[in-house]
Amino acid sequence: MTHALTEPESRPERRDPSNRRAKPPRRRRRVWRWIALSLVLLVLAVGGVGYWLYTDLNGNITGVDLDKAIGDDRPQKLPTSGQNLLVLGSDSRSGANASLGTGNVSGARSDTALVIHIPEGRRKAVAVSIPRDTLVTRPECTAKDGSTLPSAQRVMFNSVYSLAGPACVVKTVEQMSGVRVDHFMEVDFAGFKGLVDAIGGVTVTVDQDIHDKSSGLNLTAGTHKLDGTQSLQFVRTRHGIGDGSDLGRIGLQQQFLIALLSEIKKQDLLGSPTKTYKIADNLTESLTTDSGLASLTKLAEFGRSMNGIDPSTMETIMLPVRYDVQDPNRVVAAQPQAGRLWHALRKDQEIPASAKKSPATGG
């Protein structure tokens, strides 16, 4: 890479009309930022501070051994180098989450659940939202108190987390879809808010006024830059849009996901180690992952492998569902659409249009 830092000796130095040195090209500035960041880290490491920072952030992350928690009864891995990542948003009201105006409900549920499929080549991705009100068959799991939680039919998807934690959610997703979950990440309310505030907010555009007394969100039609609190209200809003159900909220969650990933990707984090640390600190404090991602090094490696994905091209799909005939306030997976969707993910194939149409849309 040294050729990017030197000029041939015979070439005269170019100067702008004010006789100042010309602005170095973008690639060279990027190289110098890498060098500057490396030097900063080296100085910190020599002083022992770098090791402290690393262990401090590393210690924030909670890891779960999925193979140990679930056992051997799991779907086969993809036949390609593709990956499936389950992302959970926990709605716990305890600890730092209690002051965020999220209500007084006890316990915690998986407020948001996304199966993110990254096909072979890792140049694109598709995010499949599982509605929290979906009735599913919960497999036998280990409850939070260590006892055995028996299998049960027709339970709400978001109740699985509150009874048995993230490993049981992974097991439930795997058994309902036949899709192997390679990794999972869980972020709670406080971590979500802190991440948005650390990057300076996220910009979204809405085509109608949204006034939701339940979440506290008040937006007029147009473009808005949301801070952490407003962003949390945005992804939790449902009464101000559509039919007021969870299905309407999913559209806002998917829109925000794309906006958030796009904002993170465009920010010059190399140029601001302080901001990078702040983001990492806020995120890791509220982060639970599988053991395969439970360190800064592993997270960084996984992040770099996703670098070729442009968030603006990410496809977002809701699991095709229909209203339950026994309880119209609940939904169940719609067939054959859901089956075709999961089949495409299992085979790392293009998802057919027929697998993306949901009879229940949420207005």
Beta-strand proportion: 15-25%
Shape: globular
Span between termini: 54 Å
Ranges with pLDDT <50 over ≥5 residues? 1-15, 40-47, 93-107
| Mean pLDDT value | 81
- The string of secondary-structure elements, in order, is HHEHEEEEEEEHHEHEEEEHHHEHEEEH
> How are the strands ordered across the major sheet?
1-14-9-2-3-4-15
Number of strands: 17
Query: How many DSSP helices?
Result: 11
Secondary structural class? alpha+beta
Report the radius of gyration as a whole number of Å.
Answer: 23 Å
Tell me roughly what share of residues is in helical segments: 25-40%
Describe this protein's structure.
The structure is a single chain. This protein is an alpha+beta fold. It is built from 11 helices and 17 strands. The chain has helices at 26-46, 49-60, 66-70, 159-164, 166-177, 189-198, 228-236, 246-266, 273-285, 296-305, 337-346; strands spanning 62-64, 83-90, 110-118, 126-129, 135-138, 141-142, 148-149, 152-156, 183-188, 202-206, 210-212, 217-219, 222-226, 287-290, 315-318, 321-323, 331-333. The chain has a 7-stranded mixed sheet with strand order 1-14-9-2-3-4-15, sandwiched between helices. α6 (189-198) crosses α7 (228-236), α6 (189-198) runs antiparallel to α9 (273-285) and α7 runs antiparallel to α8 (246-266). Residues 1-15, 40-47 and 93-107 have low confidence and may be disordered.
